[in-house]
UniProtKB/TrEMBL annotation:
InterPro entries: DNA_primase_core_N_sf, DNA_primase_DnaB-bd, DNA_primase_DnaG, DNA_primase_Znf_CHC2, DnaG_bac, DNAG_N, DnaG_primase, TOPRIM_DnaG_bac. HAMAP family: DNA_primase_DnaG. This is DNA primase. RNA polymerase that catalyzes the synthesis of short RNA molecules used as primers for DNA polymerase during DNA replication. Residues 263-346 form the Toprim domain. PROSITE patterns: TOPRIM (PS50880). It comes from the Bacteria. The keyword Zinc applies. One of its GO terms (biological process) is DNA replication, synthesis of primer.
Length: 586
């Protein structure tokens, strides 16, 4: 890849351009600040410097440039972040053959997955297209989401990939095949419509395959293989170096812009549901892929929005899954609503049978999770005692997961009104509900605090003065003579202490720059403030020396050592004079 590609991207995209797409920035002196997207906080401690093109959070001690930011917030490696930012900047990526690119294992796997996607899409038969059309999928949707077909051959995909110079190990590592008893590769996906699953950068990392019915769809029966074995309706790629189902949401790469725009994400259960929802105009829809909705999924969504609408199947299994997803989402700080669907209809069927307007109505009428649970229980539990017990057992654990104190207070009020009891009684009962998830989160935060570098814990005056030097050095037009200030700082703190300050890592230095910018960025006279700080440091050092000399003088007087008393009296007088001179200068 061209060596100047990274610089081209940085020249076209500022740190503000990138970060502001994920968090709301506000001016704070020479920098901008926001609530950190990487940890929960109420007071903004995340700062962005437009001049240096960097960011730093004083709460969780993370920082870097636009590439490290996109890596962290999108859950990507450097090449994934490079792809995302290149698209934003309009810079074309040109990969060179040979060297590191050729030997990079992850790059090879990404290339393999792309070749496999092209292979499957090229084999989508007329029969498969007809089936997808019967399920309401348009040709444009099929092409946009790159749907394909795995046929009934035992090793067609594997042989094709090997012909493209991929090794058996790479095909196995990608999760597209397994070895049979004879040691030969057999395809993972057979007789299935293939749905490529992409990461945040749009790179294919895995596949989901829906059994393609050989029998007429009206029978409701899936095809059976030899021996009468009935394969699962859906099959997903196994865990691979690229595909981690607890971190990947199907369609997220296409939905994230719409999620930001609408300030809301819609969660459905399957690929067909997602395609139907996108086709019906809800481009902010995402789906889980062969796993339950996890805290990592919640964190992924939370980077784009605070709001989630859960629209899973209306059967018993779907309702239970919605409950589990809601708790994970609440624990992740999301505001959660639930869309009620007609019984026995999933989102895809609802859209197909009743139209996009019915789906729109279901989303628009979604209820807050607590209100949804209360309504369901009240409908099924007619006896007051049964309703009360159900609220204690079912609803209060959800309420314990709500992160917003204001929202919790509102829900307390609603629950108390529904039960006909005081809010104090509900609050007392809530206090007894186990909150292991929040305890774990608190422990994690404490562990992060313990792990912070020492410079963030013991931010003394010397480092504060050094931070001004680093900050001014980073400016194109410093407002102080940095060379002269550096000499004065070394004189004030001593050569040994100054030398130790110069050994700080770049991440520590950047944190100090942000600290100085935050403290002195609005100052009209940073030079005077820097000088005052140096004088304070020097005065404190001299005062400490005076204390030591005074103690030694008393000890010499007690011992009757007149020669030492005379010497120490001179030292104390000199130190007192120097301290007085500093007072006069300040």
């Amino acid at each position: 890849m061209a060596g100047d590609t990274v610089q081209q991207i940085k020249d076209r995209l500022s740190i503000v351009d990138v970060v502001s797409q994920y968090v709301k920035l506000e001016r704070a002196g020479a920098s901008l600040r926001a609530r950190c997207p990487f940890h929960a906080e109420r007071t903004p401690s995340f700062h962005v410097s437009p001049d240096r093109g960097t960011y730093h959070c004083f709460g969780c001690n993370v920082g870097g440039d636009i590439f490290s930011f996109v890596e962290a917030i999108e859950g990507l490696d450097f090449k994934g972040a490079l792809k995302v930012l290149a698209e934003k900047a309009g810079v074309e990526l040109v990969y060179e053959r040979g060297g590191k690119e050729k030997t990079d294992e992850r790059a090879r796997l990404f290339e393999l997955m792309e070749v496999a996607t092209i292979f499957y899409t090229s084999r989508l038969t007329d029969a498969a297209k007809k089936y997808l059309k019967e399920r309401g999928m348009s040709d444009a949707t099929v092409q946009e989401f790159r749907l394909g077909l795995a046929g009934d051959s035992w090793s067609e995909a594997s042989e094709y990939l090997k012909a493209k110079k991929f090794t058996d190990k790479e095909i196995l590592d990608a999760g597209l095949a397994k070895k049979n008893e004879r040691g030969n590769l057999t395809d993972k996906f057979r007789n299935r419509i293939i749905f490529p699953i992409a990461d945040s950068a749009g790179r294919v990392v895995g596949f989901s395959g829906r059994i393609f019915p050989v029998k007429p769809a009206a029978t409701g029966q899936a095809a059976k293989t030899d021996g009468g074995f009935e394969p699962p309706k859906y099959m997903n790629s196994p865990e691979t170096p690229l595909f981690h189902k607890s971190r990947i949401l199907y369609g997220f790469d296409r939905a994230k812009q719409s999620i930001r725009k609408n300030n809301c994400a819609v969660l459905v259960e399957g690929q067909m549901d997602l395609l139907a929802s996108h086709q019906a105009g809800w481009g902010n829809t995402v789906a889980v892929s062969g796993t339950a909705f996890t805290s990592e999924h919640a964190a992924l969504i939370h980077r784009m929005t605070d709001n989630l609408v859960i629209a899973l199947d209306a059967d018993e299994a779907g309702i239970k899954a919605a409950g589990r997803a809601a708790r994970a989402a609440l624990q992740g700080g999301l505001n959660v609503k639930v869309a009620q669907l007609p019984t026995d209809l999933d989102p895809a069927d609802l859209i197909l049978k009743e139209g996009a307007e019915a789906w729109k109505k279901a989303i628009r009428n979604a209820k807050d999770i607590i209100a949804f649970l209360l309504d369901v229980l009240e409908e099924h539990m007619k006896a007051p005692d049964s309703f009360r017990r159900s609220v204690e057992q079912v609803v209060l654990p959800f309420l314990s997961d709500v992160q917003s104190p204001i929202a919790r207070e509102q829900y307390l009020h609603e629950i108390a009104a529904r039960l006909g009891v005081s809010e104090a009684a509900v609050a007392e009962t809530l206090a007894k509900v186990p909150t292991a998830s929040r305890v774990a989160m608190d422990d994690s935060v404490r562990d992060q605090d313990k792990a912070k570098p020492s410079f963030a814990q013991g931010f003394g005056r010397a480092r504060q003065a050094f931070s001004i030097l680093l900050w001014q050095q980073s400016l194109q037009k410093p407002s102080i003579d940095v060379a002269a200030y550096a000499r004065e700082l070394e004189e004030a703190v001593g050569a040994e202490a100054f030398a130790s300050l110069t050994t700080l890592s770049e991440s520590e230095r950047e944190a100090l720059r942000f600290s100085a910018e935050r403290l002195y960025g609005k100052s009209a006279a940073p030079l005077r403030e820097a000088k005052v700080l140096l004088h304070v440091i020097l005065r404190e050092l001299l005062a400490a020396e005076l204390d030591e000399a005074t103690y030694a003088l008393k000890k010499a007087e007690n011992l009757g050592n007149e020669e030492e008393v005379i010497r120490l009296m001179g030292v104390c007088k000199l130190l007192t004079t120097r301290i007085g001179q500093i007072h006069e200068r300040v």
